[in-house]
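To assess whether the prediction recovers the assembly geometry, we first specified each molecular entity separately, as shown.
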Amino acid sequence: MMDTSIGRRQFVQAAGVGAAAVAASALPLASADEAPAASEDWLGEPPMITDADCAEVRSADVVIVGAGVAGMSAARAATEVGASVIVVEQTDSFTVRGHTYGTINSRYQKSLGCEVEDPTEVVNEICRSMGNRPNQRLWMKWALESGPTFDWFEDLFDGTEEYFLEFWPRPEQYDESKEFRKQWNTGIEFVDWVNPQTKQYQKSVDQGAEYAFNMHAELLAKDENGVVTGVYATAADGSIVKFEAAKGVILTTGDYGHNIAMVKALCPEFYFSTKGNGIKIETSNGDGHKMAIWAGGWMEPSPHAHMDHSFQNMGGIGNVASLILNKKGDRFGNEDVDGQMYTNQIVRQPGMVGYTIFDMHWPEMVKNQ
Ligand SMILES: Cc1cc2nc3c(=O)[nH]c(=O)nc-3n(C[C@H](O)[C@H](O)[C@H](O)COP(=O)(O)OP(=O)(O)OC[C@H]3O[C@@H](n4cnc5c(N)ncnc54)[C@H](O)[C@@H]3O)c2cc1C
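The predicted structure of the complete assembly is given in tokenized form:
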């Protein structure tokens, strides 16, 4: 669900509302001082757990680890085709982060007259801007399926949802040829982003999905042939529960932005830009990545691309209407870049500080951006 055409204003906006999203989902925030010390050994040894340690065994066709947007979508989809499902979640509720869904050619976008004629062009631009490192097949899947997937999500709505397509329609004076790079309007933004995902959760429950909250997944269980057959999790009282999966385990545990050792080793630029503090979302510990690797999975070599939600290095009010200066008063680059690109420059300035200078005519000038 990454919005690749994100512009600076969109990034700043997303970051601001994202911060609110954290509060809305009631996740505890760690202070910088509480961040764990960095270590090179981010993988560590898998915990020693066997069937003999389990106080309880629960079974389903599909076991999903993590009740975020991905896990709840998987639960809904699997129950829709008749699978029995258990979702194992370490907190006491489901998680909804993010208010903007990056999609192309959804029913909603088409109804507004915003259609992408050639999805390949979008994927090519993404790959070009990322040095051809991305998995193109995966991006193509997004380009072709994000629209129908959003339609499927929208099918749940009852009219109480408030959402809009960001930066659409484009202003009359908008001249794409003057943009730093080609843009597509992919961001569908929700005013209340918990509401639609609550429906997703409820739909999966109505279709039979069970949610095992306060259950921390520790290790994937395997049979004698090395096939993954389930997951071991620790309950709130410390007892171990085995969740057996007849058809498969889906890991949807989110990112590893709060695991400082992983960030340092795998996403060094993010480590650098967050001054070693990582992202302050305590549930994002890379547990799923580690469980998958312990079970024999492969991880893309570092450096991984980062999406900088550090909130420390945001751009200003916009780009074209402003002048960007560092602490020494030097203009350090082209103002007409995306928010993430702007952040990449700010963290390379003295003290990681940049100033956006604009004058009293900014409200008028912003309209021309
Ligand atoms: C502040 C903020 C704002 C964001 N805004 C946007 C946005 O606007 N648009 C966008 O596309 N993306 C946004 N993102 C990125 C966003 O995190 C992801 O798009 C989205 O949350 C990914 O969903 P997910 O289900 O993969 O992971 P998550 O939402 O992180 O869900 C993972 C779940 O797994 C659980 N879990 C983890 N480990 C275990 C374990 N060992 N055992 C059991 N459960 C476990 C967690 O508790 C959590 O509930 C934002 C991120 C942040 C931090």
